[in-house]
Design a protein that fits this description.
This protein is mostly helical. It is built from 4 helices and no strands.
């Protein structure tokens, strides 16, 4: 493995996006284990027909976490990042509304 190439990649990200390349790289690489665990959780819940909202949202969050940093501190953020974030927000709002309606209907049925 060429450490110079890795260093140039990190510093290149900083120049391209106008952020601290080491912090961006740390978030980018540091999110990988969390993304992997949440993805496994999501797949397991899908197979077991359990709720998937939380694992899906967390998987998406860790997938875009480094890009969230770019949105806050950087520039030249790719359009797809904004689209994924918008989809996560819409999905989260829809799922929350659906859960609230379901719980309200269960409360009305018992009263």
């Amino acid at each position: 493995m060429n450490l110079n190439a890795l260093y140039e990649w990190f510093t290149g990200l900083g120049a391209e996006y106008g952020v601290d390349p080491l912090l961006f790289g740390a978030i980018y690489v540091g999110a990988i284990p969390f993304f992997t665990v949440c993805l496994g959780w999501l797949v397991r819940n899908l197979k077991q027909k359990k709720p998937v909202v939380l694992p899906a949202l967390l998987t998406g969050f860790f997938f875009i976490s480094a890009y969230l940093y770019l949105i806050i501190a950087g520039q030249n953020v790719p359009l797809w990042v904004y689209l994924v974030i918008a989809l996560l927000v819409v999905f989260g709002a829809y799922s929350t509304g659906k859960t609230i309606r379901k719980r309200l209907s269960q409360t009305e049925d018992t009263s």
